Amino acid sequence: MEPTSAETKAEPKSEKGGDKSGDPYRTPAPAPKSIVTLRGIFKTFWRGKEPVRVLQNLDLDVPEGSFEALMGPSGSGKSTLLNLIAGLDRPTEGTLEVNGANIGTMSDNNLAKWRSRTVGFIFQAYNLMPVLTAAQNVELPLLLTKLNSADRKKRVEIALRVVGLENRADHYPKQLSGGQEQRVAIARAIVNDPTIIVADEPTGDLDRASADEILTLLEKLNKEFKKTIFMVTHDPAAADRATVKRRLDKGALI
Fold it and tell me: 20 to 30 Å CA-CA from 47: which of 19, 23, 65, 108?
């Protein structure tokens, strides 16, 4: 229990500053640096000859280590924004920096390499290969690296242990529940130790109990493993688990 103000003793002042709570000269703790910085972002698609502006003059800063939920009505641009942050699409106008890299100007080849090192993806539909075991599905991103077989196996074992499925490594997706399939997908997302995890409706196909398990796992990845998570969701209960909630409507943050 925290002491009341009457119970708290006054802290002595320091002539040279320091870390005492009562020190008026204390240097403020630096604000977390932004891992995602968007400035003046526009995204336009074309329907025939008609332009459709999905994102309009959008600015966004995502602090490193945050767990953010993005909500909004269908068609508001949530998935488009997520795809931009993940390097799956490019802005029509504006500056987009993620983890210190200006990804809007990268070549396709460099962008693919950047994604493999930096971003972990979690999808609503799991996107597991049905002919591969859980371990083989988790290993897929590692096949694009220079890791040898032994190192890949070790990373897969660690990722499955983090999501609590080390005893399901040899099971195929059809032998797993929906919640277990999504945990395999999360293990696949973290096996490369990404800097940021993007999650598009990660609980959308799950019942409430399974959804809560997935959200608890995301909280663990954020708090214990210090992963920055940017999640799109329609579920208010999912958004409540995030440390920051944002809302997008008609292509603008409100």
Answer: 108
Strand, coil or helix: 4: coil
In a domain, 6, yes or no: no
Assess contact for 135 and 213: CB atoms under 8 A: no
**Bridge partners, 55 (sequence order):** 43
Residue 158 lies inside a defined structural domain of this protein = yes
pLDDT tens per residue, range 173-228: 999 999 999 999 999 999 999 999 999 999 998 999 999 999 999 999 999 999 99
In a domain, 201, yes or no: yes
Distance CA 65, CA 110 (A): 25
CA 226 to centroid of chain Cα atoms = 11
Q: Are 196 and 35 in contact (CB under 8 A)?
A: yes
As a whole number of angstroms, the distance between CA 230 and CA 68 comes to 5
Q: Are 107 and 184 in contact (CB under 8 A)?
A: no
For residue 203 the two structure tokens come to 């609980």
For residue 28, give the 3-state DSSP assignment.
Answer: coil
What is the predicted pLDDT for the residue at 15?
A: 44
Cα dihedral 203, 208, 214, 218, rounded to 10, equals: 80
Residue 185 counted as domain residue: yes
Please give the residue range of the domain that contains residue 174. Answer: 34-253
Average pLDDT over every residue of 98-112: 92
β-sheet with 252-253: strand ranges across: 119-123, 196-200, 228-232, 67-71, 244-249, 252-253
Instruction: Specify the pLDDT at position 144.
Output: 84
